[in-house]
Design goal:
6-stranded mixed beta sheet, 27% helix, Dna Ligase, domain 1, D-amino Acid Aminotransferase, Chain A, domain 1, 30% strand
Length: 237
Amino acid sequence: MLILLVMGKLFSLDECTDAKQVGSLGSFLAQVARNDLDVVPGFVLPIDCDLKNGVSNELLRRFDSLKTDKVILRASVPDDYKDSEVLRDIPRDRFLDSVVYMKSNSQRRHEDAAIIIQKMLNAEVTGTIYSINPATRDSGEILIEAEMWMGETVLSGDKDTDMVLIDKRSGALSLESKEEEEICLTTDQIESLHGMIRKIERLCSFPAYVDWAFDRGKLYIIRLGPMDWDIYEEFNS
């Protein structure tokens, strides 16, 4: 469960959907967490939280509670669902300096940014799922992009990926893999992703993308948000 740190106190993120405190990405993650969807474990430093008055000690305590060697930091601003800055593979001895650095960067950009801190996963497979096929804008199709590694692959667009198209009406699958003999997702994983994106689409009432990962067989949401606004407008026309 994500944790919200405000004025030295801890609250579960599913109790706060205020984008003015946690940014739009943080708000969206809170909404899905409140509906029994698994978000990558972590916590959030809200926009108006002062890094003084013992907060640094509390941040380190929360880092330790994640039981991880490294974390990922995402800047979450009120007016954009995409993280405006990301720092990966941050160990404990660089954690506080990284938080201060990200806060300072957001201020230089004249942004009010919360910082989402999440555990680095050891994922078997990761990728992005779209509730509407972004290539054809067909609202009757779901597109899954998947890759076997958690690093800078699917999420950065640097490599070819496996692709799965799901017909919402029939549930029929169309599979395409860079390895002809095998796709990196199992049938059960595809079904889990299908169920997750349909639930998110119902909750949000607009086309959404989700960056996801399977870690030790469990599906986690890394980040999510609405698809491009022109697609959103077509969806609601």
